[in-house]
TrEMBL record:
CDD domains in alphabetical order: M23_peptidase
Bilayer-crossing regions: none
Signal sequence annotation: 1-44
All residue ranges annotated as the M23ase beta-sheet core domain in the record: 150-244
UniProt key word Coiled coil: yes
Family matches, as SUPFAM superfamilies: Duplicated hybrid motif (SSF51261)
EC number(s) from the headed UniProt entry: 3.4.-.-
Keyword Ion transport: no
Main EC class the enzyme belongs to: hydrolase
InterPro entries xref list: Cell_wall_metabolism_enzyme, Dup_hybrid_motif, M23ase_b-sheet_dom
Protein name stated in the entry: M23 family metallopeptidase
Annotated source species: Streptomyces catenulae
Amino acid sequence: MAFTRATGKHRRPSRSARTTRNIAGIAGLAATGVVASVSSPAMAATSGAAHDTGLQRAVVLGDEVAERVQAQADAQQAVAETAEAKAKAEADAVKQAQAAKAAADKRHDAEVRAAREEERKRLNAFVAPITGSYVSTAYKASSGLWSSGTHTGIDFHAATGTTVHAVGAGTVVEAGWGGAYGNNIVIKMNDGTYTQYGHLSQIGVSVGQQVMPNQQIALSGATGNVTGPHLHFEARTGPDYGSDIDPIAYLRAHGVNV
């Protein structure tokens, strides 16, 4: 009678069962993305077709995903670097524009100050009333020709029709006939003093007009109480006769060499 051994829990599984379990385990590893080294007689005995497993496909897919992620990261970094470079360039451009504007404003301010200084000098400049002439009769000279007995101004040698200039900047307060002065002009200067130009043959300004230094205001002549053509010039503290001051000292005090 043949002896039959009972199957118990310690009975070794058949080869076909072990092979089935190994294949299932590898498939499970492939599904979870875990790479492991499995060595067993069953795996060694399988054919070449058995190596085309889900594990290999998962590894390849993982590499592709990693490459795509890296490429995306590189692209994002390139975009960030480009944006940073653009922002830096814009900031530099703003700084350069601000620096250029500041320099231009500084130049403009300097030019304005220089122009104002030139205008101030021009307005404060004084000239002789007759260019290239000389004093033919001095201040306070005595003669019966004048009602006061002395000369209240100075006479500049000038032929009839010689250009007469305003000695400085001011406003015309009188322009017309002045009795013994003939045709005359009185100008209130910007410093508050007055100048008078007498015996004119022609008047070229009107009351209220603003005049500048060296501006032509009249032509010399021989009108009024005169013995010949010349320009009578007076400097005064007020607009009326009798407020005269030394014209030579007045002009020299304003830089005119007479």
